[in-house]
Amino acid sequence: MRNTVSVCLLGIGGLLLAVGFIAGIVSARDIYGDFQIEIAMYWWLSAVIAGFFFIGLAEIVNLLQKLLDQNSGATPLSSSAAASNIDEVETRIEESETKIKELTILINGERFKGQLWITKSDVRVIKKSMFQSDSDAQLVKVINKSDLSPHYERNNDYFVFSFHEGNNTGKLEFKTHNIYDYERIIHLLKTQD
What we know:
Layout: H1 4-28, H2 37-71, H3 86-95, E1 98-107, E2 110-118, E3 122-127, E4 138-144, E5 148-155, E6 158-165, E7 168-176, H4 181-190
Antiparallel strand pairs: 1-2, 1-7, 2-3, 3-4, 5-6, 6-7
């Protein structure tokens, strides 16, 4: 699935190609019905250049999105402090959390835009719109990974994970606009201590 910006740029490029071709044909006809190829060539050449420029930008954005998706699974360690031994590195990795942003989350009947902050031991469900800062985010629920079912279901566009909450069973449902995120999210939710 392509990035939304990439799709828009691709559409603009295709539209420029089509409009330039049609405008070249219309502009090349003079009053007497003769066709002047020089005028048509100017329009066609400029349409091809502009159209392929936008199509190229769309491909660049799409490739950058794929690279970001591939590299976002690993959380980088801070480069300011060098690790002196393996225990220190393991502690840092355990303390790190992966933030999955731009999700539509449905939990216990409440639907909202938010994020999942996934650590080795728990999953934090955060209610946060795209334009809010992290300090304004609202913590909705903390789910221990041991209470989270390792199996998931599909409900239309949503992926559904069940979790135990005392004697009750709750459901964590989420969907994202980027199809490449699902595999990574499922892997992170299934991975436990």
